[in-house]
Specification:
Blueprint lengths: L1 H25 L6 H39 L3 H11 L2 H10 L11 E6 L2 E4 L5 H23 L6 H23 L14 H14 L1 H4 L25 H10 L15 H5 L1
Antiparallel strand pairs: 1-2
Length: 266
């Protein structure tokens, strides 16, 4: 059963790790080298965690085997097997964590007790301690990379990059929505490019009636657009509506058939 479980874990690792590596290296949400590198470190962390889980399973199985052998009166065999089969990794793990065997836990019991429960003066679990050591190593790398490396991207630079990507996305979206603008959702345009386009449209279609600059003239068909008086409302939406539908009774044609909505907007 133990070997089957180990093979399942190993197979799962072989399938998962390439997927995580690909995601870390090519994910569209990662926008800089640092993020890719941190993603690869994450893959290493996952691999280490899986390895520690497998090792922990082996230790649990061995402890259970030893308990069964002791129950059958084979203490000497157990002692011999324990001393001969203990690996360098087990010895290293014990020296790093001071793990106390279950049968010796009575030696580290604390004096206080609550509701029949007594506490052990034990060290942290190995998996937690190794993870803590790993974060220390990552912190050293992080400080060196972000504060002393020319490849690092600061928080401000990353923010500016993300804002550029967002602005480009907004522009692409607005380009698809240009012809959906009307008198109900029009907003004031202040971009130089939009103002220049609006001036060209006015000079092409509007100066014949409103004169150059929109000031009109005595006897001209179009009224003065530069004073403070408005015949049909002076809000942005009122002006949009007037240009779109016109005022036929006063000689102002409807421009909705000659101009696109974004041109009327400009």
């Amino acid at each position: 059963m133990k070997k089957i479980f180990q093979r399942v874990i190993l197979l799962f690792s072989l399938i998962l790790l390439p997927m995580l590596s690909y995601a870390a290296a090519d994910n569209v949400f990662y926008t800089n080298f640092a993020a890719k590198l941190l993603g690869i470190i994450g893959v290493i962390v996952v691999a280490g965690t899986i390895a520690m889980l497998v090792n922990l399973l082996n230790q649990i199985v061995k402890i259970r085997e030893l308990e069964i052998l002791k129950e059958q009166g084979l203490e000497e065999y157990v002692a011999a097997q324990t001393s001969s089969k203990e690996s360098w990794w087990s010895r290293f793990r014990k020296s790093m964590t001071d793990v106390v065997p279950v049968e010796k836990e009575k030696d580290i019991l604390l004096n206080h007790e609550y509701d029949g429960i007594r506490e052990l003066d034990n060290n942290l679990p190995p998996w937690w301690l190794y993870g803590f050591y790993l974060t220390i190593g990552i912190a050293v790398f992080y400080i060196g990379f972000y504060h002393f490396s020319a490849h690092a991207v600061s928080s401000e630079e990353a923010y500016n990059q993300e804002m550029e990507f967002a602005e480009a996305a907004v522009e692409r979206y607005l380009a698809t929505q240009a012809n959906r603008v009307d008198e109900t959702n029009a907003v004031l345009l202040t971009e130089p490019a939009a103002l220049a386009d609006g001036e060209n449209i006015f000079n092409t279609y509007c100066v014949a009636c409103h004169m150059k600059g929109g000031g009109g003239a005595p006897g001209s068909v179009g009224p003065n657009l530069t004073d403070k008086y408005w015949l049909h409302g002076g809000s942005l939406k009122d002006v949009f509506k007037t240009v779109k539908y016109g005022v036929p009774q006063k000689g102002m044609i409807a421009w909705k058939d000659q101009l696109r909505p974004d041109e009327i907007h400009k």
